[in-house]
Design brief:
Blueprint lengths: L1 H15 L18 H15 L3 H28 L5 E3 L6 E2 L13 E5 L2 E2 L16 E6 L2 H41 L26 H22 L3 H15 L4 H4 L4 H15 L6 H19 L4 H7 L6 H17 L3 H18 L3 H9 L4 H10 L4 H38 L4 H10 L4 H8 L5 H10 L4 H10 L39 H10 L15 H14 L8
Parallel strand pairs: 1-5
Antiparallel strand pairs: 1-2, 3-4, 3-5
Helix pairs in contact: 1-3, 2-3, 4-5, 4-20, 5-6, 5-8, 6-8, 8-9, 8-11, 9-11, 11-12, 11-21, 12-21, 13-14, 14-15, 15-16, 16-17, 17-18, 17-19, 18-19
Length: 565
Protein backbone atom coordinates (compact mmCIF):
# COMPACT_ATOMS: atom_id res chain seq x y z
CA UNK A 1 0.00 0.00 0.00
CA UNK A 2 2.89 2.38 0.82
CA UNK A 3 4.56 1.77 -2.55
CA UNK A 4 1.27 2.44 -4.33
CA UNK A 5 0.80 5.61 -2.31
CA UNK A 6 4.34 6.85 -3.06
CA UNK A 7 4.04 6.35 -6.80
CA UNK A 8 0.57 7.93 -6.80
CA UNK A 9 1.90 11.04 -5.06
CA UNK A 10 4.87 11.31 -7.41
CA UNK A 11 2.60 10.93 -10.44
CA UNK A 12 0.41 13.73 -9.07
CA UNK A 13 3.46 15.98 -8.69
CA UNK A 14 4.64 15.16 -12.22
CA UNK A 15 1.18 15.86 -13.58
CA UNK A 16 0.99 19.21 -11.79
CA UNK A 17 4.30 20.29 -13.30
CA UNK A 18 3.42 18.70 -16.69
CA UNK A 19 6.64 16.67 -16.66
CA UNK A 20 6.79 13.76 -19.13
CA UNK A 21 9.49 11.36 -18.00
CA UNK A 22 9.38 9.40 -21.26
CA UNK A 23 10.52 12.46 -23.24
CA UNK A 24 13.85 14.38 -23.25
CA UNK A 25 15.63 15.52 -21.17
CA UNK A 26 14.52 12.76 -18.77
CA UNK A 27 14.78 10.02 -21.44
CA UNK A 28 17.33 10.03 -24.27
CA UNK A 29 16.76 8.89 -27.85
CA UNK A 30 18.03 5.41 -26.95
CA UNK A 31 15.60 5.31 -23.97
CA UNK A 32 18.31 5.81 -21.32
CA UNK A 33 17.55 8.02 -18.29
CA UNK A 34 18.84 11.58 -18.07
CA UNK A 35 20.85 11.09 -14.89
CA UNK A 36 21.23 14.72 -13.87
CA UNK A 37 17.61 15.66 -14.55
CA UNK A 38 16.28 12.57 -12.69
CA UNK A 39 18.58 13.33 -9.73
CA UNK A 40 17.29 16.92 -9.57
CA UNK A 41 13.70 15.70 -9.59
CA UNK A 42 14.41 13.21 -6.80
CA UNK A 43 16.03 15.94 -4.65
CA UNK A 44 13.10 18.29 -5.25
CA UNK A 45 10.36 15.76 -4.54
CA UNK A 46 11.93 13.90 -1.58
CA UNK A 47 10.86 16.46 1.09
CA UNK A 48 7.36 16.62 -0.38
CA UNK A 49 6.74 12.88 -0.01
CA UNK A 50 8.76 12.44 3.21
CA UNK A 51 11.19 9.92 1.71
CA UNK A 52 14.93 9.81 1.13
CA UNK A 53 16.38 10.98 -2.19
CA UNK A 54 17.49 7.44 -3.21
CA UNK A 55 14.01 6.04 -2.47
CA UNK A 56 12.37 8.77 -4.55
CA UNK A 57 14.94 8.20 -7.32
CA UNK A 58 14.06 4.51 -7.47
CA UNK A 59 10.34 5.29 -7.58
CA UNK A 60 10.80 7.92 -10.33
CA UNK A 61 12.90 5.52 -12.41
CA UNK A 62 10.20 2.89 -12.02
CA UNK A 63 7.60 5.37 -13.27
CA UNK A 64 9.89 6.40 -16.17
CA UNK A 65 10.58 2.82 -17.25
CA UNK A 66 6.88 1.97 -17.09
CA UNK A 67 6.07 4.95 -19.30
CA UNK A 68 8.82 4.16 -21.83
CA UNK A 69 7.89 0.48 -22.05
CA UNK A 70 4.23 1.34 -22.34
CA UNK A 71 4.97 3.68 -25.24
CA UNK A 72 7.06 1.05 -27.06
CA UNK A 73 4.44 -1.58 -26.37
CA UNK A 74 1.64 0.62 -27.66
CA UNK A 75 3.54 1.21 -30.91
CA UNK A 76 4.19 -2.52 -31.37
CA UNK A 77 0.58 -3.36 -30.56
CA UNK A 78 -0.70 -0.82 -33.11
CA UNK A 79 1.64 -2.06 -35.84
CA UNK A 80 1.58 -5.84 -35.28
CA UNK A 81 -1.37 -6.52 -32.92
CA UNK A 82 1.11 -8.29 -30.63
CA UNK A 83 0.62 -7.39 -26.98
CA UNK A 84 3.46 -6.62 -24.59
CA UNK A 85 3.32 -8.26 -21.16
CA UNK A 86 5.44 -7.63 -18.07
CA UNK A 87 6.63 -10.86 -16.42
CA UNK A 88 7.56 -10.66 -12.75
CA UNK A 89 10.08 -13.48 -12.22
CA UNK A 90 10.69 -15.24 -8.93
CA UNK A 91 13.53 -14.30 -6.55
CA UNK A 92 14.85 -11.10 -8.12
CA UNK A 93 11.38 -9.99 -9.33
CA UNK A 94 12.92 -8.49 -12.48
CA UNK A 95 10.60 -7.46 -15.30
CA UNK A 96 11.48 -9.01 -18.65
CA UNK A 97 10.26 -8.77 -22.21
CA UNK A 98 8.02 -11.62 -23.27
CA UNK A 99 10.22 -12.32 -26.32
CA UNK A 100 12.55 -14.25 -24.00
CA UNK A 101 11.36 -17.72 -23.05
CA UNK A 102 10.89 -18.48 -19.32
CA UNK A 103 13.13 -21.56 -19.80
CA UNK A 104 16.04 -19.20 -20.47
CA UNK A 105 15.69 -18.10 -16.84
CA UNK A 106 15.85 -21.67 -15.53
CA UNK A 107 12.08 -22.01 -15.36
CA UNK A 108 10.70 -25.32 -16.65
CA UNK A 109 7.35 -25.65 -14.88
CA UNK A 110 5.65 -22.39 -14.16
CA UNK A 111 2.37 -20.83 -13.16
CA UNK A 112 1.24 -17.49 -14.50
CA UNK A 113 -0.74 -15.32 -12.12
CA UNK A 114 -2.88 -12.35 -13.21
CA UNK A 115 -4.73 -10.31 -10.56
CA UNK A 116 -4.58 -13.21 -8.12
CA UNK A 117 -5.90 -15.78 -10.62
CA UNK A 118 -3.92 -18.57 -12.26
CA UNK A 119 -4.03 -18.41 -16.06
CA UNK A 120 -5.37 -21.51 -17.74
CA UNK A 121 -3.33 -22.83 -20.72
CA UNK A 122 -6.48 -24.20 -22.34
CA UNK A 123 -8.08 -20.79 -22.78
CA UNK A 124 -7.22 -17.72 -24.85
CA UNK A 125 -5.36 -15.07 -22.90
CA UNK A 126 -7.80 -12.29 -23.84
CA UNK A 127 -10.68 -14.44 -22.56
CA UNK A 128 -8.93 -14.51 -19.18
CA UNK A 129 -8.59 -10.74 -18.96
CA UNK A 130 -5.00 -10.46 -20.27
CA UNK A 131 -4.48 -7.13 -22.08
CA UNK A 132 -1.65 -5.15 -23.57
CA UNK A 133 0.79 -4.23 -20.74
CA UNK A 134 -0.76 -6.68 -18.26
CA UNK A 135 1.56 -7.51 -15.36
CA UNK A 136 1.89 -11.26 -14.85
CA UNK A 137 3.62 -13.00 -11.98
CA UNK A 138 5.68 -16.09 -12.86
CA UNK A 139 5.98 -18.80 -10.21
CA UNK A 140 8.46 -21.71 -10.44
CA UNK A 141 6.86 -25.12 -9.87
CA UNK A 142 8.68 -28.46 -9.32
CA UNK A 143 7.17 -31.81 -10.38
CA UNK A 144 5.98 -32.57 -6.86
CA UNK A 145 4.76 -29.03 -6.31
CA UNK A 146 2.98 -29.20 -9.64
CA UNK A 147 0.98 -32.25 -8.53
CA UNK A 148 0.20 -30.67 -5.18
CA UNK A 149 -0.73 -27.42 -6.84
CA UNK A 150 -3.02 -29.13 -9.33
CA UNK A 151 -4.75 -30.96 -6.48
CA UNK A 152 -5.02 -27.75 -4.48
CA UNK A 153 -6.38 -25.81 -7.45
CA UNK A 154 -8.97 -28.52 -8.08
CA UNK A 155 -10.08 -28.32 -4.45
CA UNK A 156 -10.17 -24.53 -4.63
CA UNK A 157 -12.19 -24.72 -7.82
CA UNK A 158 -14.71 -27.06 -6.19
CA UNK A 159 -14.88 -24.88 -3.08
CA UNK A 160 -15.35 -21.80 -5.24
CA UNK A 161 -18.14 -23.50 -7.17
CA UNK A 162 -19.81 -24.58 -3.92
CA UNK A 163 -19.45 -21.07 -2.55
CA UNK A 164 -20.93 -19.61 -5.73
CA UNK A 165 -23.84 -22.07 -5.57
CA UNK A 166 -24.41 -21.17 -1.92
CA UNK A 167 -24.38 -17.44 -2.75
CA UNK A 168 -26.75 -17.92 -5.68
CA UNK A 169 -29.09 -20.00 -3.53
CA UNK A 170 -29.04 -17.36 -0.79
CA UNK A 171 -29.77 -14.62 -3.32
CA UNK A 172 -32.62 -16.61 -4.86
CA UNK A 173 -34.20 -17.49 -1.52
CA UNK A 174 -33.88 -13.92 -0.27
CA UNK A 175 -35.46 -12.58 -3.46
CA UNK A 176 -38.30 -15.09 -3.43
CA UNK A 177 -39.00 -14.59 0.27
CA UNK A 178 -39.26 -10.82 0.00
CA UNK A 179 -41.20 -11.08 -3.26
CA UNK A 180 -43.82 -13.07 -1.34
CA UNK A 181 -43.85 -10.40 1.35
CA UNK A 182 -44.09 -7.62 -1.25
CA UNK A 183 -47.24 -9.22 -2.67
CA UNK A 184 -48.97 -9.11 0.71
CA UNK A 185 -51.03 -6.01 1.32
CA UNK A 186 -51.78 -6.44 5.02
CA UNK A 187 -55.35 -7.53 4.50
CA UNK A 188 -54.72 -10.87 6.21
CA UNK A 189 -54.20 -11.40 9.92
CA UNK A 190 -50.60 -10.22 10.55
CA UNK A 191 -50.19 -12.83 13.29
CA UNK A 192 -50.57 -15.70 10.84
CA UNK A 193 -49.59 -13.87 7.63
CA UNK A 194 -46.73 -11.40 8.25
CA UNK A 195 -46.38 -8.46 5.91
CA UNK A 196 -44.01 -5.50 5.57
CA UNK A 197 -45.01 -1.87 5.75
CA UNK A 198 -42.84 1.02 4.52
CA UNK A 199 -42.68 3.88 7.00
CA UNK A 200 -40.85 7.22 7.25
CA UNK A 201 -38.46 8.29 10.02
CA UNK A 202 -41.40 9.03 12.32
CA UNK A 203 -42.87 5.59 11.77
CA UNK A 204 -45.75 6.83 9.62
CA UNK A 205 -46.73 4.48 6.74
CA UNK A 206 -45.75 5.82 3.32
CA UNK A 207 -48.35 5.79 0.56
CA UNK A 208 -46.39 4.96 -2.57
CA UNK A 209 -47.28 3.28 -5.91
CA UNK A 210 -47.53 -0.49 -5.66
CA UNK A 211 -44.73 -1.17 -8.15
CA UNK A 212 -42.37 1.13 -6.27
CA UNK A 213 -43.44 -0.35 -2.92
CA UNK A 214 -42.51 -3.84 -4.12
CA UNK A 215 -39.10 -2.69 -5.37
CA UNK A 216 -38.47 -0.92 -2.07
CA UNK A 217 -39.35 -4.02 -0.04
CA UNK A 218 -36.96 -6.11 -2.14
CA UNK A 219 -34.24 -3.47 -1.79
CA UNK A 220 -34.60 -3.24 1.97
CA UNK A 221 -34.80 -7.03 2.23
CA UNK A 222 -31.54 -7.57 0.36
CA UNK A 223 -29.96 -4.79 2.42
CA UNK A 224 -31.00 -6.40 5.71
CA UNK A 225 -29.66 -9.77 4.57
CA UNK A 226 -26.39 -8.14 3.53
CA UNK A 227 -26.04 -6.39 6.89
CA UNK A 228 -26.70 -9.69 8.66
CA UNK A 229 -23.83 -11.26 6.70
CA UNK A 230 -21.58 -8.26 7.44
CA UNK A 231 -22.05 -8.86 11.16
CA UNK A 232 -20.70 -12.39 10.62
CA UNK A 233 -17.72 -10.96 8.64
CA UNK A 234 -18.91 -12.74 5.47
CA UNK A 235 -18.12 -9.70 3.35
CA UNK A 236 -17.89 -11.41 -0.05
CA UNK A 237 -21.36 -12.91 0.36
CA UNK A 238 -22.67 -9.70 1.92
CA UNK A 239 -21.61 -7.48 -0.97
CA UNK A 240 -23.50 -9.72 -3.44
CA UNK A 241 -26.73 -9.05 -1.52
CA UNK A 242 -25.95 -5.36 -1.09
CA UNK A 243 -25.41 -4.90 -4.82
CA UNK A 244 -28.78 -6.59 -5.43
CA UNK A 245 -30.32 -4.09 -3.00
CA UNK A 246 -28.68 -1.26 -4.92
CA UNK A 247 -30.28 -2.48 -8.15
CA UNK A 248 -33.74 -2.54 -6.58
CA UNK A 249 -33.31 0.90 -4.99
CA UNK A 250 -32.50 2.34 -8.41
CA UNK A 251 -35.99 1.36 -9.56
CA UNK A 252 -37.50 3.76 -7.01
CA UNK A 253 -38.24 7.45 -7.43
CA UNK A 254 -35.18 9.54 -6.60
CA UNK A 255 -37.29 11.82 -4.39
CA UNK A 256 -38.22 8.83 -2.25
CA UNK A 257 -34.58 7.85 -1.80
CA UNK A 258 -33.77 11.25 -0.31
CA UNK A 259 -36.72 11.12 2.11
CA UNK A 260 -35.10 8.33 4.13
CA UNK A 261 -31.46 7.46 4.82
CA UNK A 262 -31.58 3.80 3.70
CA UNK A 263 -29.95 4.40 0.30
CA UNK A 264 -27.10 6.44 1.78
CA UNK A 265 -26.42 3.78 4.42
CA UNK A 266 -26.39 1.12 1.68
CA UNK A 267 -23.65 2.99 -0.22
CA UNK A 268 -21.53 3.09 2.94
CA UNK A 269 -22.06 -0.63 3.54
CA UNK A 270 -21.00 -1.54 -0.01
CA UNK A 271 -17.77 0.48 0.23
CA UNK A 272 -17.11 -0.91 3.73
CA UNK A 273 -17.30 -4.45 2.29
CA UNK A 274 -14.94 -3.54 -0.56
CA UNK A 275 -12.52 -2.14 2.04
CA UNK A 276 -12.69 -5.34 4.08
CA UNK A 277 -12.08 -7.41 0.94
CA UNK A 278 -9.21 -5.07 -0.09
CA UNK A 279 -10.86 -4.67 -3.48
CA UNK A 280 -8.63 -1.83 -4.67
CA UNK A 281 -9.95 -2.24 -8.21
CA UNK A 282 -13.24 -0.77 -6.95
CA UNK A 283 -11.70 2.61 -5.99
CA UNK A 284 -13.48 4.62 -8.70
CA UNK A 285 -16.79 2.97 -7.83
CA UNK A 286 -16.15 3.64 -4.13
CA UNK A 287 -15.55 7.34 -4.75
CA UNK A 288 -18.85 7.67 -6.60
CA UNK A 289 -20.75 5.75 -3.90
CA UNK A 290 -19.33 7.88 -1.08
CA UNK A 291 -20.32 11.04 -2.96
CA UNK A 292 -23.84 9.65 -3.35
CA UNK A 293 -24.01 8.75 0.35
CA UNK A 294 -22.89 12.23 1.45
CA UNK A 295 -25.38 13.91 -0.90
CA UNK A 296 -28.25 11.72 0.33
CA UNK A 297 -27.39 12.34 3.99
CA UNK A 298 -27.44 16.09 3.44
CA UNK A 299 -30.79 15.95 1.62
CA UNK A 300 -32.33 13.61 4.18
CA UNK A 301 -30.96 15.18 7.38
CA UNK A 302 -30.54 18.79 6.24
CA UNK A 303 -27.38 20.80 5.59
CA UNK A 304 -26.98 21.37 9.35
CA UNK A 305 -28.90 18.21 10.28
CA UNK A 306 -31.86 20.41 11.16
CA UNK A 307 -34.41 17.98 9.72
CA UNK A 308 -32.92 15.17 11.79
CA UNK A 309 -33.04 17.32 14.92
CA UNK A 310 -36.69 18.20 14.24
CA UNK A 311 -37.67 14.56 13.76
CA UNK A 312 -35.65 12.83 16.49
CA UNK A 313 -34.75 15.64 18.86
CA UNK A 314 -31.01 14.89 18.65
CA UNK A 315 -28.33 13.96 16.13
CA UNK A 316 -25.92 11.99 18.31
CA UNK A 317 -26.73 8.49 17.10
CA UNK A 318 -26.43 9.29 13.39
CA UNK A 319 -22.91 10.68 13.89
CA UNK A 320 -21.51 7.14 13.58
CA UNK A 321 -22.58 7.20 9.93
CA UNK A 322 -20.63 10.38 9.28
CA UNK A 323 -17.62 8.94 11.12
CA UNK A 324 -17.62 5.93 8.79
CA UNK A 325 -18.17 8.20 5.75
CA UNK A 326 -15.21 10.47 6.59
CA UNK A 327 -13.04 7.47 7.46
CA UNK A 328 -13.64 5.83 4.08
CA UNK A 329 -13.07 9.17 2.34
CA UNK A 330 -9.75 9.50 4.19
CA UNK A 331 -8.66 6.03 3.09
CA UNK A 332 -9.67 6.74 -0.50
CA UNK A 333 -7.76 10.05 -0.53
CA UNK A 334 -4.66 8.30 0.79
CA UNK A 335 -4.80 5.60 -1.89
CA UNK A 336 -5.11 8.33 -4.52
CA UNK A 337 -1.96 9.98 -3.20
CA UNK A 338 -3.75 13.01 -1.72
CA UNK A 339 -2.28 13.00 1.79
CA UNK A 340 -3.49 16.50 2.63
CA UNK A 341 -7.11 15.62 2.04
CA UNK A 342 -6.64 12.29 3.80
CA UNK A 343 -5.36 14.11 6.91
CA UNK A 344 -8.24 16.61 6.82
CA UNK A 345 -10.82 13.82 6.72
CA UNK A 346 -8.99 11.82 9.37
CA UNK A 347 -9.02 14.87 11.64
CA UNK A 348 -12.81 14.95 11.38
CA UNK A 349 -12.92 11.22 12.09
CA UNK A 350 -10.81 11.52 15.26
CA UNK A 351 -12.92 14.43 16.49
CA UNK A 352 -16.12 12.41 16.03
CA UNK A 353 -14.55 9.29 17.50
CA UNK A 354 -13.57 11.10 20.69
CA UNK A 355 -17.21 12.18 21.15
CA UNK A 356 -18.73 8.82 20.24
CA UNK A 357 -16.33 6.61 22.18
CA UNK A 358 -18.29 5.84 25.34
CA UNK A 359 -17.30 5.94 29.02
CA UNK A 360 -17.13 2.30 30.17
CA UNK A 361 -18.17 3.24 33.72
CA UNK A 362 -21.36 4.89 32.48
CA UNK A 363 -22.07 1.89 30.26
CA UNK A 364 -21.70 -0.44 33.26
CA UNK A 365 -24.05 1.70 35.37
CA UNK A 366 -26.74 1.51 32.70
CA UNK A 367 -26.27 -2.26 32.37
CA UNK A 368 -26.63 -2.64 36.15
CA UNK A 369 -29.98 -0.81 35.88
CA UNK A 370 -31.21 -3.56 33.56
CA UNK A 371 -30.76 -1.81 30.22
CA UNK A 372 -29.26 -3.64 27.24
CA UNK A 373 -25.89 -2.79 25.69
CA UNK A 374 -27.64 -1.46 22.60
CA UNK A 375 -29.97 0.75 24.63
CA UNK A 376 -27.06 2.08 26.68
CA UNK A 377 -24.84 2.76 23.67
CA UNK A 378 -27.51 4.52 21.61
CA UNK A 379 -28.81 6.54 24.56
CA UNK A 380 -25.40 7.80 25.69
CA UNK A 381 -24.59 8.92 22.14
CA UNK A 382 -28.00 10.56 21.76
CA UNK A 383 -27.45 12.43 25.04
CA UNK A 384 -23.79 13.38 24.45
CA UNK A 385 -22.66 11.08 27.28
CA UNK A 386 -24.95 12.48 30.00
CA UNK A 387 -25.88 9.52 32.23
CA UNK A 388 -29.10 10.90 33.73
CA UNK A 389 -30.39 12.09 30.37
CA UNK A 390 -29.58 8.66 28.94
CA UNK A 391 -31.70 6.97 31.62
CA UNK A 392 -34.63 9.26 30.82
CA UNK A 393 -34.09 8.69 27.10
CA UNK A 394 -34.22 4.89 27.41
CA UNK A 395 -37.24 5.02 29.72
CA UNK A 396 -39.16 7.27 27.32
CA UNK A 397 -38.19 5.13 24.33
CA UNK A 398 -39.41 1.98 26.06
CA UNK A 399 -42.71 3.69 26.90
CA UNK A 400 -43.12 4.81 23.29
CA UNK A 401 -42.59 1.25 22.09
CA UNK A 402 -45.09 -0.10 24.61
CA UNK A 403 -47.64 2.53 23.57
CA UNK A 404 -47.09 1.55 19.93
CA UNK A 405 -47.58 -2.13 20.76
CA UNK A 406 -50.75 -1.26 22.67
CA UNK A 407 -52.12 0.70 19.72
CA UNK A 408 -51.30 -2.18 17.39
CA UNK A 409 -53.04 -4.68 19.67
CA UNK A 410 -56.08 -2.40 19.94
CA UNK A 411 -56.11 -1.93 16.18
CA UNK A 412 -56.02 -5.70 15.69
CA UNK A 413 -58.83 -6.30 18.18
CA UNK A 414 -60.98 -3.70 16.44
CA UNK A 415 -60.18 -5.23 13.08
CA UNK A 416 -61.09 -8.73 14.23
CA UNK A 417 -64.36 -7.45 15.75
CA UNK A 418 -65.24 -5.73 12.47
CA UNK A 419 -64.46 -8.87 10.49
CA UNK A 420 -66.72 -10.85 12.81
CA UNK A 421 -69.49 -8.28 12.29
CA UNK A 422 -69.20 -8.56 8.50
CA UNK A 423 -69.06 -12.37 8.54
CA UNK A 424 -72.19 -12.34 10.68
CA UNK A 425 -73.82 -10.46 7.79
CA UNK A 426 -72.98 -13.41 5.53
CA UNK A 427 -69.71 -12.35 3.91
CA UNK A 428 -66.65 -14.60 3.87
CA UNK A 429 -63.85 -13.75 6.28
CA UNK A 430 -61.46 -13.32 3.33
CA UNK A 431 -63.67 -10.78 1.55
CA UNK A 432 -64.46 -9.01 4.83
CA UNK A 433 -60.75 -8.71 5.70
CA UNK A 434 -59.82 -7.37 2.25
CA UNK A 435 -62.69 -4.89 2.20
CA UNK A 436 -61.68 -3.52 5.62
CA UNK A 437 -58.05 -3.23 4.50
CA UNK A 438 -58.97 -1.33 1.34
CA UNK A 439 -61.27 0.91 3.37
CA UNK A 440 -58.50 1.67 5.91
CA UNK A 441 -60.63 0.11 8.64
CA UNK A 442 -63.73 2.25 7.89
CA UNK A 443 -66.76 -0.03 8.34
CA UNK A 444 -69.05 2.13 6.18
CA UNK A 445 -66.62 2.08 3.26
CA UNK A 446 -66.02 -1.64 3.75
CA UNK A 447 -69.76 -2.27 3.57
CA UNK A 448 -69.86 -0.16 0.43
CA UNK A 449 -67.19 -2.37 -1.14
CA UNK A 450 -69.25 -5.47 -0.32
CA UNK A 451 -72.68 -3.83 -0.81
CA UNK A 452 -75.35 -5.46 -3.00
CA UNK A 453 -72.85 -7.96 -4.40
CA UNK A 454 -71.18 -5.62 -6.90
CA UNK A 455 -67.77 -6.70 -8.17
CA UNK A 456 -64.89 -5.53 -5.95
CA UNK A 457 -63.08 -3.51 -8.65
CA UNK A 458 -66.29 -1.71 -9.61
CA UNK A 459 -67.12 -0.98 -5.95
CA UNK A 460 -63.65 0.43 -5.25
CA UNK A 461 -63.75 2.58 -8.38
CA UNK A 462 -67.20 3.92 -7.47
CA UNK A 463 -66.05 4.81 -3.95
CA UNK A 464 -63.03 6.63 -5.37
CA UNK A 465 -65.19 8.59 -7.74
CA UNK A 466 -67.57 9.65 -4.96
CA UNK A 467 -64.94 10.42 -2.34
CA UNK A 468 -65.91 7.44 -0.21
CA UNK A 469 -69.64 8.27 0.01
CA UNK A 470 -71.37 4.85 0.16
CA UNK A 471 -74.83 6.09 -0.89
CA UNK A 472 -73.50 8.02 -3.91
CA UNK A 473 -71.25 5.10 -4.89
CA UNK A 474 -74.20 2.71 -4.77
CA UNK A 475 -76.29 5.06 -6.92
CA UNK A 476 -73.42 5.29 -9.46
CA UNK A 477 -73.21 1.53 -9.67
CA UNK A 478 -76.97 1.13 -10.07
CA UNK A 479 -77.05 3.70 -12.85
CA UNK A 480 -74.33 1.76 -14.70
CA UNK A 481 -75.86 -1.63 -13.87
CA UNK A 482 -72.80 -2.51 -11.83
CA UNK A 483 -70.38 -2.05 -14.74
CA UNK A 484 -68.31 1.15 -14.72
CA UNK A 485 -66.42 2.54 -17.75
CA UNK A 486 -62.98 0.91 -18.15
CA UNK A 487 -61.12 4.19 -17.53
CA UNK A 488 -62.52 4.27 -13.98
CA UNK A 489 -61.38 0.73 -13.12
CA UNK A 490 -57.90 -0.08 -11.73
CA UNK A 491 -55.31 -1.33 -14.19
CA UNK A 492 -54.11 -4.23 -12.02
CA UNK A 493 -54.72 -7.70 -13.48
CA UNK A 494 -57.74 -9.66 -12.26
CA UNK A 495 -57.34 -12.19 -9.48
CA UNK A 496 -56.45 -15.70 -10.58
CA UNK A 497 -58.82 -17.14 -7.97
CA UNK A 498 -62.19 -15.40 -8.43
CA UNK A 499 -64.38 -14.92 -5.38
CA UNK A 500 -67.71 -13.25 -4.79
CA UNK A 501 -68.24 -10.44 -2.32
CA UNK A 502 -71.99 -10.94 -2.00
CA UNK A 503 -73.56 -12.60 1.07
CA UNK A 504 -74.11 -16.29 0.57
CA UNK A 505 -75.81 -18.75 2.89
CA UNK A 506 -73.66 -21.51 1.38
CA UNK A 507 -70.36 -19.89 2.46
CA UNK A 508 -69.09 -20.66 5.97
CA UNK A 509 -68.78 -17.70 8.29
CA UNK A 510 -65.54 -19.01 9.79
CA UNK A 511 -62.34 -20.01 8.06
CA UNK A 512 -60.42 -23.20 8.65
CA UNK A 513 -56.62 -23.04 8.88
CA UNK A 514 -54.08 -25.78 8.40
CA UNK A 515 -51.78 -26.53 11.30
CA UNK A 516 -48.87 -27.26 8.93
CA UNK A 517 -46.63 -24.63 7.34
CA UNK A 518 -46.35 -24.22 3.59
CA UNK A 519 -42.94 -23.82 1.85
CA UNK A 520 -43.78 -20.14 1.35
CA UNK A 521 -44.39 -19.74 5.09
CA UNK A 522 -41.03 -21.33 5.89
CA UNK A 523 -39.26 -19.15 3.35
CA UNK A 524 -40.88 -15.97 4.69
CA UNK A 525 -39.93 -16.88 8.25
CA UNK A 526 -36.36 -17.54 7.08
CA UNK A 527 -35.90 -14.11 5.48
CA UNK A 528 -37.65 -12.35 8.36
CA UNK A 529 -34.99 -13.71 10.73
CA UNK A 530 -32.45 -11.41 9.08
CA UNK A 531 -34.53 -8.28 9.75
CA UNK A 532 -33.45 -6.57 12.93
CA UNK A 533 -36.21 -6.10 15.48
CA UNK A 534 -34.64 -2.81 16.54
CA UNK A 535 -35.31 0.15 14.27
CA UNK A 536 -31.88 1.69 14.97
CA UNK A 537 -29.76 -1.43 14.61
CA UNK A 538 -27.80 0.20 11.76
CA UNK A 539 -26.67 2.94 14.15
CA UNK A 540 -25.49 0.58 16.88
CA UNK A 541 -21.79 0.40 15.98
CA UNK A 542 -19.18 -0.55 18.57
CA UNK A 543 -16.58 1.35 16.47
CA UNK A 544 -13.98 -1.40 16.99
CA UNK A 545 -13.41 -1.88 13.26
CA UNK A 546 -13.35 1.88 12.76
CA UNK A 547 -10.72 2.26 15.49
CA UNK A 548 -8.53 -0.36 13.80
CA UNK A 549 -8.76 1.40 10.42
CA UNK A 550 -7.98 4.76 12.03
CA UNK A 551 -4.75 3.24 13.34
CA UNK A 552 -3.82 1.84 9.93
CA UNK A 553 -4.31 5.17 8.15
CA UNK A 554 -2.45 7.09 10.87
CA UNK A 555 0.51 4.72 10.59
CA UNK A 556 0.95 5.73 6.95
CA UNK A 557 0.22 9.42 7.33
CA UNK A 558 2.23 10.13 10.48
CA UNK A 559 5.70 9.14 9.24
CA UNK A 560 8.51 11.38 10.36
CA UNK A 561 10.68 13.50 8.02
CA UNK A 562 12.85 11.65 5.54
CA UNK A 563 16.43 11.02 6.65
CA UNK A 564 19.11 13.30 5.22
CA UNK A 565 21.72 11.87 2.89
Amino acid sequence: MEEQNTEAKLKNLLKQEKIQLWNPPYTSDNNQPGQQQMQELAERYAPQVSLSVPEVGVALESIRVQAVNRGKGNKTFRETNVASLELLLPRDARKVETQRKPSEHGLRYIRLILSGKTLCPDKRLDEQGVKNHSKIMVLRVTDNELKQQMHKEEEERKNKEEKKKSQDKSLQRTQKGFQILSERDGSEDPITTPFLEIADQRGNPLKIPDKERKALILAMGFHEKGRSLMKRKQYDNAVCHLLKADGQFRKCDSALLTAVDNYAVLQLDIVWCHRALEALSCLDDAKSRLQTAERCFLQCYGEQQERLMMIKGNTGREQVLFLRLYLLQSLLSYLEGNDTQARDKLSKVESLYSRLCLDSEKMNQLLLLGFTEREARLALRACQGDLQDAIVHITNHRKEKEDLKHRERQKRRTRMDNISTLTAMGYSRRDAARALHRADGDMNKACGLLYLGFERDASEAALRQTGGDVQSATQLLLENRGVLPSELLPVSPPSTSPSTSSPSSEEPTTSSTSTGKTPDDELVNEVLEDISRHEEDYLDLTLEEEQELIGVIKSYLSRGPAPTV
